[in-house]
Amino acid sequence: xxxxxxxxxxxxxxxxxxxxxxxxxxxxxxxxxxxxxxxxxxxxxxxxxxxxxxxxxxxxxxxxxxxxxxxxxxxxxxxxxxxxxxxxxxxxxxxxxxxxxxxxxxxxxxxxxxxxxxxxxxxxxxxxxxxxxxxxxxxxxxxxxxxxxxxxxxxxxxxxxxxxxxxxxxxxxxxxxxxxxxxxxxxxxxxxxxxxxxxxxxxxxxxxxxxxxxxxxxxxxxxxxxxxxxxxxxxxxxxxxxxxxxxxxxxxxxxxxxxxxxxxxxxxxxxxxxxxxxxxxxxxxxxxxxxxxxxxxxxxxxxxxxxxxxxxxxxxxxxxxxxxxxxxxxxxxxxxxxxxxxxxxxxxxxxxxxxxxxxxxxxxxxxxxxxxxxxxxxxxxxxxxxxxxxxxxxxxxxxxxxxxxxxxxxxxxxxxxxxxxxxxxxxxxxxxxxxxxxxxxxxxxxxxxxxxxxxxxxxxxxxxxxx
Length: 467
Hints:
- By secondary structure, this protein is of the alpha/beta class.
- It has two domains: 9-283 and 376-451, Luciferase-like domain (TIM Barrel), CATH 3.20.20.30; 297-372, no CATH class.
- Helix content is 39%, strand content 15%.
- It has helices at 34-46, 78-86, 105-118, 133-136, 147-165, 223-232, 243-255, 281-295, 298-309, 338-341, 347-361, 365-372, 382-394, 413-425, 438-442, 450-466; strands spanning 9-14, 51-54, 62-63, 66-67, 93-99, 123-128, 173-176, 181-184, 190-194, 199-203, 215-218, 235-238, 268-277, 376-380, 400-403.
- The strands form four sheets. It has an eight-stranded parallel β-barrel, surrounded by seven helices. It has a two-stranded antiparallel ribbon with strand order 3-4.
- A hairpin with a 4-residue loop joins strand 9 and strand 10 (199-203).
- The model is unreliable at 337-342 and 456-462 (pLDDT under 50).
């Protein structure tokens, strides 16, 4: 018997201004006007995507004390945008990145529970940590945490938020309309949670939402990030761009689930991906090369080089060879906290790899950055792109993709009109939404509340004792 076809999950990323967006293209619109968010969301919903995803920026990006062109437009508040989009969409999931380093569990839980109510069960939370020192300057906790401390805080933050979500079971209040009174459990919303990062106790004031809890996403690719996702997340992002690397990541993360008592279908692997479509594969490749050069200007290439080399390279020629000197190892003075905890665990080894790449392909500094910063990209005719996406999913290199268009707001229009129908014809993507909540779209079961978890643990203990 042949293996049944997996259903592909698709989402749209509203990128804002970053090294994916070509904001200088004449076809690009505003990165901040609400009409841009509406256009992308409605296109994604028309194409029956699972959700729309927003990143978060708590400070304009800067380097060497200066703001640079990747973030000059600024970023509106995630919750405000998603709440507004809930009013102009019906089924599309609404996922937002909210930081666990500089927020508090009570306020974040309250905001997500409210969003889940406003959207009738379509909220999702991408739990991230902050890695840079200058973001901390916007908050009373300056500086940045070491990697192990950031992940420990994130785990405790998520657990605390789940305690708050579960403080309502859903049936504690009964309205007596004749007398005009409410019959309420006096312990409704009561919580107490004392751990090293949080010492909180009180009463949560938002009733249990349609999904119980928002869908939880996690974006870390490190050992700590993979383990965090396996223990606590519903989906994890990935940056792996080849079938071989994707399958290795998929297997690694899925294999971690068993030790947390979770099934392999309880965590989805969703890499971010870009795409370029053309009338022919050659036409698409030509367009893709032009777009990559627009995405990585000479100035942007220098910024990426500085993050690895930890030096002022403002006089370096981006169209010349890589710097001859080695990176400075130690505290990062170009983007504090960034290189040491994010991409470059071993700057000298990364520089060696980049030099080998440059020598093998005869690449300039800018061309190296274009190659090493590219996401998983689907390039070709709509038929070729549909075939490639399906191959990744059916061969367990991913469960779907979060598509990051290079144009805002019309960047996914062509994909929705040409690639999606081909996936539907293959029987691997929905033609209509079958459920109403984001958990329905993703095939995720409703989360157990604290009482249900306690009862299940008791039953398991009883079964073990009896055996």
